[in-house]
Structure formats: structure tokens, C-alpha cells
Amino acid sequence: MAASDIAAVPATIPGAPRRASRLRRVARRPLPAIGATLLALLVLSALAAPWLTSHDPFEMNVVDRLMPPNETYWFGTDAYGRDIFTRTLYGGRVSLVIGASVAIASTVIGLFIGVLAGYFRLADAVLMRIMDGLMAIPGILLAIALMSLTRASMWVVIVAITIPEVPRVVRLVRAVVLSVREQVYIQAASAIGTRLPRLMIKHILPNTFAPLIVQATYIAASAVLVESYLSFLGVGTPPEIPSWGNIIAEGRLYVQIAFWNILFPSVFLALMVLSINILGDGLRDMLDPRLARRI
Amino acid sequence: MGSYVIRRVLATLPVMGVVAVIVFLMLRLSPGDPAAIIAGDNATSQDIAQIREYLGLDQPLGEQFVRWIGQLLTGDFGNSIYLNRPVLGLIMERVGPTLALSISTMAFAILLAIPLGVLAAWRAGSWGDQAIMAMSVLAFSVPVFLIGYGLVIGFSLELELLPVQGFVSLSESPIGFLRHLVLPTVALGLVYTALLARITRATMLETLNEDFIRTARAKGLAEPRVLILHALKNASVPIVTTIGTGIALLIGGVVVTESVFAVPGIGRLTIDAVLQRDYPVIQGVILVIAGVYVLVNLAIDLTYSLLDPRIRY
Q1: What percentage of residues in chain B have a pLDDT greater than 70?
Q2: B165 backbone dihedrals φ, ψ, rounded to 5°
Q3: pLDDT tens profile B91-147
């Protein structure tokens, strides 16, 4: 079916969900919508950071150090007298960049390797042994070890978090390809002479998209969390960049006298991870009903 | 049976082999000169050359690998560059607190998660089920340090019931040992509990729809008996498998939790090694932990093949 044929199909197919029923569905299961709204607010607060605050994330007021939350400093100040509210907003940018980059990178790399493994028997044996080996090393530990290899930068953090995530995507894609390639319509397409690249792109790959989108949201959530862990441990994002993990790592020294140093960035972090996870659950229920029933 | 055991045991060899290759290549394929990275920013070219020679980095890659594997097989994990002591000894010194925390966390999570998961599946769709599932999403999302510092502020600083941080060995003082373990166990255990509760609920839901459950209920068995003896027993394979694979998640969390509570375990050793670019220690820790992961999962698979004849392939 060519694109023009699809355009000829009437916009409202009988039996297809209409607007009203979709709204009703959202009302019955409000969680995904709440997650999406929360995430949108967090994204907005990160993007609009310069307009939401009159402070600078690096501006130090040593006189005002370790002040509790007040009218000038909404979330209080850190040991250098920097405004935690401002730094928390800017920290959201780091988390968003890392979450999105890791999700995209691991999905693309995992898709490529997964298709190779799923379609070519020889590649499968080798690639899956490598993936098994990678999965035997706990993700955070592998990321920590990778961070030791070169001078830290945001890109290194992204690579270090991406590598442990790849095997999960590969397994998912491989499983889909393996089950799809035995389907009758693939044999039919192959029998009428469809070439391999076209078969792959037009007939096999689309089957991986729904589970991949769901997986990518979970990976984004996990990446945001892992970045904060790496930075918290002092082996993540370079300390001069105000990421949530870095703010918390500096604040932990003053947890007894100035808990707001870790409270606010931690709460933002938890809200972002929570909203992405809820969104992922919603997408899963929507795109992949088979999985939804199982977990 | 015997052939399954042999095949399953042999299957661990390629995994460990790949782990060894990854660990070996990581340093060698990293951008830049590994010897210069290890030596640090203020090193002279003489220092760098010395480190290169010490680690054998000046020799051909294949030769390095064969020599390294040979040493590993005799239990020689090399020496720490920073402390100039055998890596395996350093790991053994630090393994106690990590092992204690891992075991207590696992026990805590299993004891809490399985009843919760069974309950949620039994009354699927009820507000209790929804509350348990909502809590599990929350536990997945809240960072360990927020829970950890929250517990410290509440139970240690405000109520003064438990120690703020640190570790006391079991032989030193059994009471102190337990008191120091409580907060890290709860902080770390919640994520693991969430994972296990979800998988318990999912497999229980599936099992509860089976015919033999209907039969059990029809012949008038009491509900707890149906749930535990008939359903949970049959749902246990995926649950125990998840306990095994979840160890990877657990160990990642242990590193962070040890840092929050200043527990002198493997996590602390690893972070110190990374900050000092003490590469032999990092390699040793990864190999040992991956080895533990592979062996635990091997043990779980073999136990199941003994208990459940359906598992043997």
C-alpha cells in the first residue's frame, strides 16, 4: 500500500477510537497523563531556568552560605552561598540531556546489533556471548569502571551509562526478530522476491518499534538515576557542572546542618525518574497490551 | 540430568571468558595512553614509562592477554598500583561488610516482597493491589541516597535510635553489627523489594488462572493453602530466577549505599580505586563480582533442575 492509498482511507474508520472515548480512557486511567504532565513541567522548568530565577547557578555569596530556604533563596544556599533553587533548575538540564542521549544511543546501537543477531545465525552466537558477558557485570559497576578510563566529561558519562544498557535492548530486538522471521507474511514477502534490506526495514523492523519505545523510556529513567549515582560517588559529571548528583554530593557533607542541600535536588530527581517511569508504564499499556497483562 | 548439569556448568565458561576479555580490553582500547591516565596529571614521562612496563603495556596485545589469563587462573589478580599489595587480598579484606549488607538486604526484600506480591495478585485490581504497585513504582524512582539520608535524619539524628553510619563486624559485637545494618538494609532493600513484588504478582496472576487452582478451590481447600502450596510453589521459578538476576541491581545499589553509610566494603574500595586510577583493583573487583553473579545464577539454575524436572532442556 503506497502513501497515497493511505491518504484515501477516510479519517474516521468505523470502530476506531474517537476523541471523546479517548478522553474517557484518560479519565479512567489518569496516571500516564499525570506522568506526562509532571515530566512536561520538569522539562519546562529546566529550559526556562534563566527566566524562573534571578540568580546565577555559579554566583557565590559567601556571606549567605548554608542559609535555610527563605524569600531570596527559595531552596536555601550551599556551602559557597550559591542558590540551590537555581542550581536545581539548571541541574535538570544535565539530567534531561543525559537521559535522552542514553535512551537514543542505546536504542539505536541495540537495534542494530539485535537485528544482526536475530537474523544471522553466525553473528548471533558471537554477539549474544558478548552481551551475556556484559550483563554479568552490574551496570553501575561497569559505568564506574568506564569512567576511570579517561578524563570525565558529560559525553564520557553518556557513553559509560549507554554501554551497560545496550544488551537489554539487543535481547529485546533479537527476540522480536526471531519470532517475526518465522511468520507466514515474512516467508510470503521473501517468496515473491523481496530483497533482504527491504524485508528488514519494511516488514521486520516495524515490529520492534512499540517495545523499543517503551524500553527507551525506562532506559531514560534509569540513566537519569545512574548519572546521579555516578556524580554522587564523585566519578560522574565533572564537579563544576551543576548536575543533581553533583549538588547532592557537595551537600552530603552538610546533611546534619543543612539537609536542604540534598533534599530539593533529590526530590526533583525522584520526580523526574518517577514521571518517566509512569509514562513508560502508560506507553506499555497502550502500545504493547500483551506485556501489560503480564507485568 | 547429568548432561544438563555439565552443559549448564560449561555455559558459564564463555560468559566468564567474555568478561575477562572486556575487562582486559577496556583499559587497552580506551582513548589515550592508559599508562598516562593511571600516572595522573602530574606524572613525568619517566613515571609513565615505568607504569607501562610494570603493567606490561609495552608488549604485544596477544602476549599480554595470555600472560594475564595465566596469572588469573593461578589466582593472581595482580598488585594494586597505589597500595602495592595483592588485589585479591584487598578484596577479601573488604568483602565482609558488602556480603553482610547484600545478604541482609536480600533477606529483607524476600520476606517483604513475596507476601506483598501474593497479596496483590490474590486481590488483583483492589485498592490494596494498586497501593502495592504504586509503592513499587515509587521505590524504583526514589534514589537510594534520598531514602538513606531520610532514614538517617529520622532514626539516627532525631530519634537517636540507630547509629548514623559505619560498620561493626559480627565478631566484634553482634548487637552493634545488627544495629549498623538496619538502615542501609532498608534503604537499599526497597528497590529490590519492588522488583521482587512485581515479578511475584505477575507470575502469581498467571498461575492463579490455571485449571489446577480452580480444582484446588473446588475441592474445598482453604484459601491460604491454595495460595501458598499450590500457586506460589508453581510460580516460584521466575521469582527465584529474578532474585538471581536481580543481584546485578543489588550490587550496583550496594556501592551507593556503602557510600551513604560509610561502610568500608567493596563499593568503597572500587570508588577509591577509580579516583586513584588503580586499574588492577578495578579489574579485580569486576572479575570477582561478575564471577559471583555467574556462580549464584548457576547455583539457582541447577537447584531448580533438581527440584523441577520440567526445567531440564
Answers
A1: 97
A2: -160, 180
A3: 998 998 999 999 999 999 999 999 999 989 888 888 888 888 888 888 888 998 899
Strand partners, A83: A77
- Are the beta carbons of B146 and B271 closer than 8 angstroms? no
Average pLDDT for A35-45: 90
Which residue does chain A place closest to B252, by CA atoms? A140
Q: Is A149 close to B138, i.e. CB distance below 8 A?
A: no
SS3 content of chain B, % helix, strand, coil (to 5): 80, 0, 20
Report CB contact under 8 Å: A138, B137.
Answer: no
Contacts of B149 in chain A (CB under 8 A): 252, 255, 259, 262, 266
A151 CB neighbour count, 10 Å cutoff:
11
Cβ separation A145–B286 shorter than 8 A: yes
pTM for the complete prediction?
0.86
Q: Does the beta-carbon distance from A148 to B277 stay under 8 Å?
A: yes
Cell matching residue A49: 531556568
Per-residue confidence (pLDDT) for residue A105, from 0 to 100: 96
Q: Are B181 and B108 in contact (CB under 8 A)?
A: no
Reported as type and span, the H/E element at residue A286 is helix A260-287
ipTM of the predicted structure?
0.87
Look at chain B and count its residues. Answer: 313
Torsion of CA A186, A190, A193, A196, to 10 degrees: 90
Which residue of chain A comes nearest to B248, CA vs CA?
Answer: A138
Helix then strand then coil, % of chain A, to nearest 5: 75, 0, 25
What residues of A are in contact with residue B30 (Cβ under 8 Å)? Answer: 149-150
Residue contact A148–B273, C-beta within 8 A: yes
Of the two residues B43 and A169, the one the predictor is more confident about is A169
Confidence bin at A16 (pLDDT 50/70/90): very low
Please tell me which of the candidates B202, B249, B282 has its beta carbon nearest to residue A145.
B282
Separation in Å, CA B96 to CA B56, B173, B180, B234, B249:
32, 14, 14, 35, 19
End-to-end CA distance of chain B: 9
Whether the CB of B293 is below 8 Å from some CB of chain A: the reply is yes
Query: How many other C-beta atoms lie within 10 A of the C-beta of residue B24?
Result: 18
The shortest C-alpha distance from B136 to chain A (Å) reads 11
Q: What is the C-alpha separation between B258 and B247, in angstroms, rounded?
A: 16
Q: Do B202 and A294 touch (CB under 8 A)?
A: yes
Cα-Cα-Cα-Cα dihedral of B100, B105, B108, B112, to 10°?
Answer: -170
pLDDT surpasses 80 at B54: no
Nearest CB partner across the interface for B274, out of A144, A270, A277: A144
